[in-house]
Amino acid sequence: MNILVVDDSRTMRDLVSRELRKDGYEVETSEDGVEALKKISDFLPAVIITDLNMPRMDGLQLTRALRARSDTKYVPIIFLTTESGDDLRRAAREAGATGWIVKPFDGPKLLAAVRRVSA
């Protein structure tokens, strides 16, 4: 299964990718929403994991853009962020997010969330 990881932190992209690859997933990474949208058509992710706060295009803007496209309208989107406020979670749900995990993440919890949204 293909998973796209979108985060402006190279370290976080590497940590998340390593955890997912250990479990057998194919992973592509992007440093922000603009780059993610360029890669989507070629990679066709089954799940997208995105940070909230990123330059150029943040996670909320990315989610709205993905929900507006026919090829990604129903792809599960998990936010992986340091933010935990109820208002931001609500905004993410309204934009079309499927799940929310607060950093620092726990590997088994991340994998369980991916399995849950892709089932």
UniProtKB/TrEMBL annotation:
Annotated positions of the 4-aspartylphosphate modification: D51
Protein name, entry field: Response regulator
Alphabetically ordered keywords of this record: Phosphoprotein
Domain named Response regulatory: residues: 2-118
SMART domains on file: REC
PANTHER family: CHEMOTAXIS TWO-COMPONENT RESPONSE REGULATOR, STRESS RESPONSE REGULATOR PROTEIN 1
Keyword RNA-binding: no
InterPro entries hit by this protein: Bact_response_regulator, CheY-like_superfamily, Sig_transdc_resp-reg_receiver
Database matches in SUPFAM superfamilies: CheY-like (SSF52172)
A Pfam family it matches: Response_reg
Organism: Gluconobacter potus
